[in-house]
Amino acid sequence: MSVRVALLGNSFARLAQLPALRWARENGGPHEVVALAGHDLEKARATADEWAIPTVTDDWTSLFGADAAHFDLVIVSTPTHLHAPMVRAALESGAAVLCEKPFAMGGDEARELTALARGRLALIDHQTRWSPWRRAFKAAVSEGVVGTPWAGRAQMRVASVPRLGAPMTWWYDEARGGGILGALGSHVLDGVVDQFGRRFAEVTARLSTMIQERPGEGGAAVPVTADEEAWLHCVMDDGLPLTVETSIVAFGCERDAGQGNLLELRGSDGTLRLEGETHLVFIPHGEAAREFAVEPLPTCDEYGMGSSGMFPRCLPTYLRDVLAAVDAGRTALEGAATFASAVHVMDVMDAARTSHREGRQVTVGGSHVG
Questions:
Q1: What is the 3-state secondary structure (H, E, C) of the chain?
Q2: For the segment 152-176, what is each residue's pLDDT rounded down to a tens digit?
Q3: CATH level 3 topology of 132-295+344-363
Q4: Domain 3-128+313-337, what architecture?
Q5: pTM exceeds cut of 0.85
């Protein structure tokens, strides 16, 4: 059997998903990409021609309905405000779904989609769970290497000079799901739940926008409404204090020991640190750091990708395993982020926004993790 795949979205698909899917097909993930939808038809047709995708459209709704072709897996990678209608249509068509994060505009919408997906393979593209370094960090935490945990940190900070003058897009529009809390913060929050093995109980947050206006259509200045940096002080369900920092304007972060990304758990026996997605060390109190031996992933160039960084590097092996699960008719994939688990992440982000708006600590809404 070859899994029939439809891609909704043409940006991340062109740069990373299609090369990753090619690798997956060659390494145990049988499939064929049979449809592509993009908002710019000319660009979508160019991608379809390059990758021999038979159906291409700028109207994603035409891919679904009583007379539409059947898909086994629909991959949704569009602006956040489009996720819910696309996910609904895919689920109602009978397909499994892999959706980019954040997969909803808030906790209530996330619960609605989770209920609709019950009994189905419905996953979030938190591909960093497939990072060998993060899996090693998770194992070390579960083995109690730090002793009694004292406090933790999770950071994901990047910067790009071209972004400073970038025009107004959905990325900077809160109404369309833009903002760094959702774009990178959702990855960090999911990583805390997965790799630290804890859920969030309370959040105090500060969200910041540094560039207040960006050029819109015609060049006129448009107010930026989405956050560019988020700082969260959190209390976990076992009382552990943990800080989360994520930023898209973190210039100079490459000088940090974590190269912009950092996981850290401090405890009675020492400190466990994942630095820059390349070095995992344990530092016993008063002793030299001990580095873990971790088999690295291939580089983006080796994967043949047009992008770089941790996210695309983790994608090929994740997609291979997703495709294998779809091919086998499974409704779960061990270790993957599900719609049900993502509800908790949405609740944390809702709590963070409330905290920022009202200037107080907020209790995170309860939800079941599947």
A1: CCEEEEEECCHHHHHHHHHHHHHHHHCCCCEEEEEEECCCHHHHHHHHHHHCCCEEECCHHHHCCCCCCCCCEEEECCCHHHHHHHHHHHHHCCCEEEECCCCCCCHHHHHHHHHHCCCCCEEECCHHHHCHHHHHHHHHHHCCCCCCEEEEEEEEECECHHHHCCCCCHHHCHHHCCCHHHHHHHHHHHHHHHHHCCCEEEEEEEEECCCCEEECHHHCEEECCCCCEEEEEEEECCCCEEEEEEECECCCHHHCCCCCEEEEEEECCEEEEEECCCEEEEEECCCCCEECCCCCCCCHHHHCCCCCCHHHHHHHHHHHHHHHHHHCCCCCCCCCCEHHHHHHHHHHHHHHHHHHHHCCCEECCCCCCC
A2: 999 999 888 998 999 999 999 999 9
A3: Dihydrodipicolinate Reductase; domain 2 (3.30.360)
A4: 3-Layer(aba) Sandwich (3.40)
A5: yes
